[in-house]
């Protein structure tokens, strides 16, 4: 069984399509939030995502901001501009789809949330200590999160207070060991200086995590963003992956 784990698509249809082409047949898709914000294709990404097999899609902070569910004052000025652009661009049907998204979901041995199990929409899991604090906020073997746009694996060592932080190598498959918090990285706006779209395949039967990256046509996305008047800083960062 192959479950595609993706996060932080950020309205980048070209990156999303490239990932879907690369993975081939899948049994289910779990999307960990931030479908929209930054990118030029919010409605197109929602239309593409919603027809994927056995989809579970969570609400991210950018999705919540696009719906005016949270105050955009906490975003930096350019991110706020992109959110206001997104609010104007979203169709009624897209808004309804976003409004119905859950913040957290649980399936057998896995809990998923956008930011963290403790604060699903907002908290960033960037370091081992913050990850450690979060292990008591879920009771499954694994928790998959997005939000930081950085692929990472936090492992809680048995019987200790010690959390190990590992950055996986693209193209590798690993056996998961309880308990673990994992981030698949970002499809549409990677921030680890690797501009390629990031994703993972989880097999719940074998309990394996296959992590990969795929190059997509960044320039085509940049051209659409520029034509739509989206902030140049967001246009430029896609090419370098920051
Ligand atoms: Zn994001």
Task: Describe this entry's structure for a reader.
The protein is of the alpha/beta class and about 240 residues long. The radius of gyration is 17 Å and the shape is globular. The protein has one domain (about 5-240): Metallo-dependent phosphatases (Purple Acid Phosphatase, chain A, domain 2, 4-Layer Sandwich), CATH 3.60.21.10. It is about 30% helix and about 20% strand. The protein has helices spanning about 15-25, 40-50, 60-65, 75-90, 90-100, 130-135, 220-225, 230-240, and strands at about 5, 30, 55, 105, 110-115, 140-145, 150-155, 165, 170-175, 180-185, 195-205, 210-215. The model has no long low-confidence stretch (mean pLDDT about 95). A hairpin with a 6-residue loop joins strand 7 (about 150-155) and strand 8 (about 165). It contains 8 helices and 12 strands. Strands 3-2-1-11-12-9 form a 6-stranded mixed sheet. Strands 4-5-6-10-7-8 form a 6-stranded mixed sheet, covered by helices on one side. The protein starts with a strand and ends with a helix. Bound molecules: zinc ion. Zinc ion (ZN) binds near residues 8, 10, 60 and 147. The site of zinc ion has 7 residues, from loops.
